[in-house]
Amino acid sequence: MISSQAARLPRRKLRLINPRSSLTTITMPEIIRKMTFSRRALFMPLNLAICAAVVPDGWDVEIIDENVTDELHRPSAEGIAAVGIGAMTTQARRAYELADVYRALGVPVILGGIHPSALPQEALRHGTIVCRGDAESTLPRALRDLGAGQPKAVYDWKDGPAAPIATPRKDLLNPADYLVFNPIQTTRGCPHGCSFCTTPAIFGRSFRQRDIGEIVQEIRQAKEQFNSRVFIFSDDDVAGNHKWAMELFDAMIPLKVKWASQCDILISQNDKLLGLMRKSGCLGVILGLESPRSGTLRQAGKRYVRAEEYLDRIARIQSFGISIWGSFIFGFDTDGWADCMNAVRFAQRAKLCMSCYPILTPYPGTAVYEQYRCQGRLLTEDWDKYNGSTVVYQPARMTIDELRHAQMAAFHEFYTPSSSLRRLGLWPLKRNSWLANLAIYRGLTYYYSKRARPLPRFSDYAACDHAERIARSLGKEGSR
Amino acid sequence: MPDLATDGNLNTMAVGRTGNPPPSLRIDLGRACTFNFVVVDHGRDELAYARRVEIAISNDGRIFSPCMIGPGSRRVSNFMLPKMALARYIRITAIEPGPKPWAVAEVYLQ
């Protein structure tokens, strides 16, 4: 009876688009393809696969990912009832471009994702509907209302009942295009509220966990269907709830898989949790350390840990055979170049297997964005440049060039072979970490030698001609 | 209750009354200290910030000279003084109220 009714209803088609990201250009597609065994992108668009899973009955879905095609998508209204576009801040410009064209073609456009959630009024200048927050709670309502011809302008996830985290529809994507085709989302949100982070800014601090049975089922299916053995949990904090995380890791032990994810450093105080992480196949975790200075952590509203405890906590996690990839942010108001250098020295001392050094980016919706906007320190609202490697605000204690140079010097000095040797040692051989470290160093030296620029070093700052050295390294010699 | 803003406990907060004069917090550092960065943590209520804040310093606790006026922000308000200050007393005044009554869980000087 139900199926015959459904057959009578006219079917509509929703086209979901992942806009080309300026990050793809920064990381240079040709290098990405070499490093990822000819894959076109690192991660599959999990957000759209989740959207596809929650569309109501009567809707068909297709996904277009501009990051895996040579040509940009050419909008066409044929056979399409609506278009959904998900956008992080770096994708916002392209998302708006697409939305404008589709609206001109008479197709309603639904905008969602971090950026439209943070700036719904801006997004509404381009899209017909904005979905704020979780798609599970907003997209089905938006599509039902659209189908009934009475859509609202904004659907906020806080206005409706909370919906469980959905299992993504991966059948709409080509696995050969992505290095990581099976990212698994186990949780959403973050229990902490750091002032630079978009997660608490958009989703509040409500921390939600997915049904453990569904997660195990998704992993099992990926193992059978795609022969996946290593998984990335694409969470902000996979172990944000220790009790739940222990239940999950316990349930994963029989699956015999390897996994890595991001979490907070508080896992170090729970040996039982660390033991279960290791037993369930945890290879490593990304920790947002931000800075080895407590003053900087206070300024960033990162209250749950003191920097003085970092070394002990890191050693505790490493003692369980779990590798650590640290993330340090450069450019807080108290940061000078020496603080950036100290972060690298700290990462070396802590024997982190990998480390990254993004420049502080005041993403819309965050407290840092509001603060810099009030202070008149935002240099641009060209969202393409909100990518972690461009300075988009006026730093307090460094010039823009000094900050950019500090980031590159950090990458260079952390990944030199001698630094890798001190951190990784030779035995037991950490093959994957060594390969990654050498590949990053090779990529950096190739980049600078190709452009005939000197490699950046922190010692440049102490030189009498430091401004010239920094300019030469940044390729700005001629412009001075 | 200014002590609650300097007790090292983020769960206890000094809450300012709204109205005139605007709520302010005066802290005696015990001796003259140098600092040029003031962090005001608003504790568990992220919206308990003031839209505009004045930072003033004094050596005798009676005559305060303003150092700067700047915007507050959610969760943590950061103020970088235009130059290094040497003072025993600091006064933080919420000169323009925010969305909720001003609350200070902790003040850090750097």
Helix content of chain B: under 10%
- Greatest interface by residues involved: A-B, 17 and 16 residues
Major sheet summary line of chain B: 5 strands, antiparallel
- Please give the domain count of chain B: 1
CATH topology name of the largest domain in chain A = pyruvate-formate lyase- activating enzyme
Beta-strand share of residues of chain B: over 45%
Number of strands of chain A: 15
How many alpha or pi helices of chain A? 20
Quaternary organization: heterodimer
CATH topology assignment of chain B: Jelly Rolls
Gyration radius from CA atoms of chain B, angstroms: 13 Å
The SSE string of chain B, one letter per element, is EEEEEEE
Indicate the proportion of strand residues of chain A: 5-15%
- What separation lies between the terminal Cα atoms of chain A? 76 Å
| Strand numbers in spatial order across the main sheet of chain A | 3-1-4-5-6-7
Q: What is the mean pLDDT of chain B?
A: 90
Are there runs of chain B of 5+ residues with pLDDT below 50, and where?
none
Main pleated sheet of chain A = 6 strands, parallel
Name the CATH class of the largest domain in chain A.
Alpha Beta
Kindly report how far apart the N and C termini of chain B lie: 23 Å
Question: Can you describe what's shown?
Answer:
The complex is a heterodimer of chains A (480) and B (110). Chain A has two domains: 8-159, Rossmann fold (3-Layer(aba) Sandwich), CATH 3.40.50.2300; 182-473, tm_1862 like domain (pyruvate-formate lyase- activating enzyme). Helices cover 40% and strands 14% of the residues of chain A. Chain A has helices at residues 2-8, 22-26, 29-35, 46-54, 92-104, 114-118, 120-124, 135-147, 198-203, 212-226, 242-252, 271-279, 294-299, 310-318, 337-349, 367-374, 400-415, 417-424, 431-450, 466-473; strands at 12-18, 41-43, 59-65, 82-86, 109-112, 129-132, 154-156, 178-180, 187-188, 208-209, 230-233, 258-263, 282-290, 323-328, 354-356. In chain A, strand 4 (82-86), helix 5 and strand 5 form a beta-alpha-beta unit. In chain A, helix 15 (337-349) packs parallel to helix 17 (400-415). Chain A is globular and about 70 Å long. Residues 1-6 of chain A have low confidence and may be disordered. Chain B has 110 residues and is mainly β. Chain B has one domain (2-109): Galactose-binding domain-like (Jelly Rolls, Sandwich). Chain B has strands at residues 14-15, 24-41, 52-58, 65-71, 76-96, 103-104, 106-109. At the A-B interface, helix 13 and helix 16 of A face strand 2 and strand 5 of B.
